[in-house]
């Protein structure tokens, strides 16, 4: 959405809150139909949110602050597809109002040549401030800017839905989440609909995903957030059945996976993997989560979330499967 001359990518609502704005990743009509955890918490995480704009002056100031989190909240700067240099690569967002001073690169013509030579998908004239996966509050923008122009961003877009693993927990930096890395490899845009701890595959979420016309292909990671004792196996199966049935009605490619490998108790995880396979294998483009990642050394200390190496394994393996699929289809992603 466009707000204050900025494209708030992956944002559906700007909700006034304490001299600033919560950036909500779902519209109000969907919030009303999903679980309480999304409504009160994960739907407001800055996961996959980017502030995108062109500079009409040499610099601008953006003001944000972060809600208290256990991890440092760091935003990363890209000039189109190209990561910012050491002077302007990252910005720590504090819990007090924080000024982020963003400048035009002094070598823009070089970045343009590289972008054209390498056929990179984003124009280097577009500033992309990639927000962290905590909860950031937008306060204000100061300076002369405008939203990206037609052709500045890729026409095709990859949508990823899933748990905190999709959301980016333990990726340490938002550009190292597997959705971001797959999009880089596919040279397309992305939308991150990862909901930490709250991805419960509700029909309302599936209906929302297929209602969006701005994605070309999607992936859904299903299961780990319902392993807890509060969810029955029957309830999980009902959700998977309805969720995948709705997605299957859309003609666009949807890649599906189950629970990735982790070193904990496998009995219930295997039962849930089997349920996902039962419904996703015949309806979507299914690959078992263990084929994407099944190495204990690539799981962090918490026993669930992949490490940086684990994230890269998921990105590499899923990208190869996606790329092979599209190579066989002459890379015709869009069916809009």
Report on this model:
A hairpin with a 2-residue loop joins β3 (13-17) and β4. The chain has two domains: 2-146, Galactose-binding domain-like (Jelly Rolls); 157-328, Rossmann fold (3-Layer(aba) Sandwich), CATH 3.40.50.1110. 44% of the residues are buried. With 336 residues, the chain is α+β, with helices and mostly antiparallel strands. It contains ten helices and 18 strands. The protein has helices at 28-31, 36-40, 108-118, 164-167, 178-186, 203-211, 233-248, 267-283, 289-292, 308-328; strands at residues 2-3, 6-9, 13-17, 20-24, 50-55, 59-66, 74-79, 82-83, 90-92, 98-103, 126-130, 136-142, 145-146, 157-162, 189-194, 217-221, 254-257, 285-287. The longest helix is centred in the last third of the chain and has 21 residues, at 308-328.
How far apart are the termini? Answer: 20 Å
CATH superfamily assignment of the largest domain?
A: SGNH hydrolase
Give a quick account of the main beta sheet: strands, pairing sense, barrel closure: 8 strands, antiparallel
What's the number of domains?
Answer: 2
CATH class of the largest domain: Alpha Beta
Q: Structural class of the helices, strands and pairings?
A: alpha+beta
Averaged pLDDT: 95
How much of the sequence is in beta strands?
25-35%
Order of SSEs: EEEEHHEEEEEEHEEEEHHEHEHEHEHH
CA-atom Rg in angstroms? 19 Å
Low-confidence stretches: none
Helical coverage, percent range = 25-40%
Number of helices: 10
Find the CATH topology of the largest domain.
Answer: Rossmann fold
CATH architecture of the largest domain: 3-Layer(aba) Sandwich
How does the overall form come out from the CA principal axes? globular
* E-strand count: 18
């Amino acid at each position: 959405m466009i707000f204050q001359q900025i494209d708030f990518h992956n944002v559906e609502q700007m909700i006034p809150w304490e001299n600033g704005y919560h950036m909500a990743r779902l519209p109000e009509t969907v919030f009303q139909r999903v679980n309480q955890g999304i409504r009160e918490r994960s739907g407001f995480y800055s996961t996959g949110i980017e502030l995108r704009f062109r500079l009409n002056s040499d610099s601008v100031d953006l003001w944000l602050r972060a809600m208290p989190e256990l991890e440092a909240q760091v935003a990363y700067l890209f000039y189109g597809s190209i990561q910012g240099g050491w002077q302007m690569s990252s910005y720590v967002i504090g819990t007090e109002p924080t000024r982020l001073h963003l400048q035009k690169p002094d070598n823009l013509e070089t970045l343009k040549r590289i972008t054209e030579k390498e056929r990179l998908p984003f124009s280097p004239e577009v500033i992309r401030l990639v927000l962290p996966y905590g909860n950031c509050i937008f306060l204000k923008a100061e300076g002369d800017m405008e939203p990206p122009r037609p052709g500045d961003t890729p026409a095709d877009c990859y949508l990823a839905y899933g748990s905190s693993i999709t959301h980016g927990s333990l990726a340490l930096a938002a550009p190292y989440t597997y959705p971001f890395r797959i999009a880089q490899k596919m040279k397309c845009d992305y939308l991150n609909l990862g909901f930490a701890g709250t991805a419960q595959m509700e029909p309302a979420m599936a209906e929302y995903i297929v209602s969006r016309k701005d994605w070309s292909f999607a992936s859904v990671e299903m299961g780990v957030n319902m392993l807890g004792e509060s969810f029955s196996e029957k309830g999980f199966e009902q959700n998977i059945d309805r969720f995948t049935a709705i997605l299957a009605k859309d003609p666009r490619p949807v890649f599906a996976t189950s629970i990735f490998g982790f070193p904990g108790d496998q009995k219930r995880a295997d039962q849930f993997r089997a349920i996902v396979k039962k419904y996703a294998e015949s309806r979507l483009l299914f690959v078992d989560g263990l084929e994407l990642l099944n190495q204990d050394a690539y799981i962090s200390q918490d026993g669930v979330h992949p490490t940086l190496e684990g994230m890269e394994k998921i990105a590499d393996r899923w990208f190869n499967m996606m790329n092979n699929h599209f190579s066989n289809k002459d890379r015709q992603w869009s069916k809009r």
